[in-house]
Amino acid sequence: MDKPAGSQPTRFKDLDLSPVMHRALDRAGFTEATPIQAQLIPLAIDGLDVIGQARTGTGKTAAFGIPILEQLDSLEECRDPQALIVVPTRELADQVGRELERLAFGVPTEICVLAGGKNMNGQLRHLNNGVQVVVGTPGRVHDHIQRKTLRTDKIWCVVLDEADRMLDIGFRPQIERILRCCPRDRQTLFLSATLTPTVRRLAESYMYKPDVIDCSENEMSVETIEQRYFTIAHDRKRSLLVRLLKRENPAQAIVFCRTKRGTDKLQRALSREFEGVGCIHGDMQQRERDRVMQAVRDRKLKVLVATDVVGRGIDVSTISHIVNYDIPQDCDDYVHRVGRTGRMGRDGLAFTFIVPGEGDFLTSVEQRINKELIRDEMDDFEAVEAPPEPVAAAEVDPDQPKRKRLNPMNRKSRRRR
Length: 417
Known about the structure:
single chain; about 425 residues; alpha/beta; Rossmann fold; seven-stranded parallel β-sheet; 15 helices; 15 strands; about 15% strand; globular; disordered N terminus
């Protein structure tokens, strides 16, 4: 059953939460609940399966994290994992783990992050010592289940965060095996920016009569983000980027590139012009990726050059500018890149460089977000006209079973008081 937006209280003090949780929220500075938080938290506390659709940067971690923390048994009562949160990337796993620790303030809570690139022996020790919540990437979680080092028989809640992204990048087999290994009468929460047919089919197979809440408001990017574009010859993109960064002087910016090699090359070039320039991509060691992301959070880096490894799910509230130096593969990736700024209602600014032959992408983005991008120009910097629509390929070369989960009969409220 779909829930209309805005039907729930919007202040945390109006939500029926434990005193210790209210104290933790006050300490974290949480006063106004976002739409996804206001709607999802009561349903999740009641033990219902829920599909929540909301853009990144809308507080989804707290939306599922608060109900989980409110209902955990203490480690003395249960030393095996009680909740499992699966996310698409290592960086997002770390971020979710940190956010849960902040929300758990006042109650000792063991949260274990399982992600590739992390020390396996440390993860094994943590699991063996007892944990209440596991946050992990599909590959590493599945690996631990196969090794029988992650026990799943006491898990009463499974969360798939960024479900559409995990399916897009090929994690469906691992996700299905993980879900099949968890108790059939568990609670299941799906959080997704888009409800694709693939996400809906997965939900039909592994959820019980889920409530669907849609907080996307039919617009794929936040209203507070001003989105502009430049039309530029390919060989002048780097010069334009340098001029743009000097003109904007951003508090912090992410510059997105298409390839790992291009990311490294651009970072070296920008380092000759600016201080505080770093880069991150999938070929870097996890220790180095962690170091770079921490430097961003500590505001030691002013410009981060990145591939789409940080295109989704990474919440750094100080990012003021996004630059699509290379256009992404599709409109969804554009939306999630741009969503790295304007977090939690803050203002943000996004620029996209369009080279000859990429005019169709600009049109597709504008149709998807139902909003025209503003054409920008640089003083003393000649732009090129947007290219005409290409000739259709045909004119150039004419040759060219579902598994339902059992109805949980004895599910009960697990409120922490």
